[in-house]
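The methods section describes the discrete structure representation at length, but only in general terms. An entry of this sort, consisting of the sequence and the corresponding backbone structure tokens, reads as follows.
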Amino acid sequence: MGRVIAVTILVALVVLAAIPPVVGMFLESNIRAELQIPEPNPYIEYRLTDYDRGLYSSDGVMAVRLTEEYANSIRAQMAGAAMDDPDFRSDLEEFLQGEMQVDFDVHHGPFLVRRPGLGIAGFNSELMPPDGELAKFVADNDLPYLLRARGTFDFGDTLTFHYDIPPVSNENEELAYSFTGFDAHGVLDLQSMRLKAEGGSERLRMLGDDGEVTAEGLAFSVDQTLRNQTLWLGEFSMTLDGITVNVPLPQSVEITVSKLNASGHVNLDPSGEKLQAKVRYALGSLSGMPESEIDNFEVTIEISDVDADAYARYIELYQDMAINLDDPEQAARINTEMAPMLADIIKGSPRLRLSPVKFNYNGEPFTLDLDVSMDGSDIPDDIDPAMLVNPMMLVGLINASGYLETSQVIATQIAQSVMKGQIAGSLPPDEQISPAQIEAIAAQQAAGMIDMLMQQGLLRIEGNSLRADAEFSAGELKVNGTAIPLGPM
């Protein structure tokens, strides 16, 4: 028995000793294969410039840059006043044409006991700019790297990873800034492509001649599975404790946003063919703007019955469009492919619901509820997709209902704002009228407008609030049961 145990231990040791170089060869071949895929990434070009495989560890260097097509799309989107600033244009071109260097090392056995876990192989990579202003920023702030990624492959098909951006601070006269760093960690199942991760940052502060911005308490979490290259299914959440903006105008203004939250999920219906999404947005308060205080804002957005495959194609085409903005032939091709994709989405009878939008404006309540759907059940399969992007046909497919309820104070303020805009826009250039006079005229006209809407039945009083219920179907709009002529469409 002792000899059997000894042989077993010896065989185990030989196998363990053989694993590291095999894993090293496997990692190298996979890295090289990943960097030499036949279809290029439309956004990023990357190449392996060096790889040195060792017995228990390997290291290498990878160069990363934007593709020229994607850089051109960014230039097209940035065209305008910003590009007239030579310093901005120079910094943008440095980013668009620059190349980042990723230094990485891989550890592959015999046992890997390193953060972030125990596994058969691990990696550590650091993103660094080789030159330019960004490289100067890294050097001036003595940063060890811009972004670091660490991970461990376990004995199955799971990757445990940890990403971080280092903290940085500088108190110079032109621009003072402090950043506590960013951290994200999680687990990715390489078979099911399920990702579970969380992370965040404590604080970012920037202070310059134009003012001061502070953001605090960023946190996020995801538990999602990749269905295809463009669609993640599952849950997510993001919170931000607050943002403060201080602008030194003739009179200093400090705007504060507190308790931002977004959370929800994206899943498939029981058939596995249609998307169902529900996202809730909330805001604790928005203060600091003249005569405008908002608190307790919340809205839940529900989207259902969206063809999952068509939506995935839409995302791909949207990304393709961003890359080919300046190519008329490609734009024409994308528009041609977009029509049948939109047809598939409409045929699925998608639905959007806001349930509801709620907030207090200067202490006064406001509520808006909206439910919009498209009935594509009767659309024949052989219809020309171009017909479905015709506005008249689309309007005929839409059904909507909802209501608006608000205090009389808010209704009056909204009416006054509308009246002030109309009065100011209708004045002759040489007419002299003071803001106080415009305010008085607008207040008088606003009261008359609300009375007229109530007499027409388009608004009704419920307690201390004004309410309007609306329905839209077959191209006809009704408000509180009264038909509203829409004119030719």
In short: Residues 2-35 form the longest helix (34 residues). Residues 1-166 form one domain.
